[in-house]
Please model this.
Amino acid sequence: MDAIFAIDKPVGPTSHDVVARIRRAARLRRVGHAGTLDPLASGVLVVALGNATRLVEYLTADDKAYRAVIDFGSETATDDAEGDVTRTGPVDHLDATAITAALDVFRGTITQVPPSYSAISVGGERLHALARRGVAVEAPPRQVTIDAIDLIAWEAPRATIDIACGKGTYVRSIARDLGVAVGSAAHLAGLRRTRSGTFRIEDAPALDVVEGALRDGTWPALAVDPATALPRLPAVRLAAGQLRDVAAGRPIEATITTAGSPSPPGDGPNDLVGGSYTVHARAIAPDGRLVAILRRAAPNLWHPEKVLAAATAE
Model:
């Protein structure tokens, strides 16, 4: 079974718990997810099975969207509702206008300090493990991209905010830093991922629905074809000879064109896709199967970076 599911993860289980439940329901060992959600968070969790797990690193790189609930007046050790209060701040001066104005500094590429309780490794240890032992280590700052951030509702002292962001963004850090920006303190009270790449919450079945479909064999109706799961990567439609080469791990020549895109200096026409230089592409067999992920080695030369085990040259 090679499949991808966009699951509406409920509040409570960890992302690892979801993977374990899918593994049991599918009776399949190879299961992985693209983009961790904390136990208190819900929403779109992309889960891959079988050979599709080889696509997880590309799926994880997709941008994501969230609806965040932020409570003002207190900051916590974990930057969410689970942690002990470490600082308080006034809230009487806050209103929708002040929150909206403060959001301006969070748009674009910003520098963010991840939460102390996070899975980031420092010196070979996870920050959350160090924090639980009482070892104070600040996570190294990182640059993240916030494509959009907007106030949806304000009911003092609580704000509901929609955020679209790139890989590696911590919404808990946005909540913490927003509290500082408005002269108060704040923490993340609730989080729902509404989109992961092109996977939307409206199209994501509940976890128990996917489990049931895996058990009774009706799962194909809920699964996403791996060939269409990464639409941001351009597709190379393989001829029979190219299929044999890619399946054997040999490079192929192919020209990728995208109408209206400018050309990078010294390269063939239309090699910019989505505003960025194309590095990866999907290799699609004549029958529509995803055969491999290709990596550009020269303007029109592509090496198979990952050949799916199920792909054959027949």
Q: What stands out?
A: Residues 258-276 have pLDDT under 50 and may be disordered. The chain has three domains: 3-62+198-226, 64-196, 233-307.
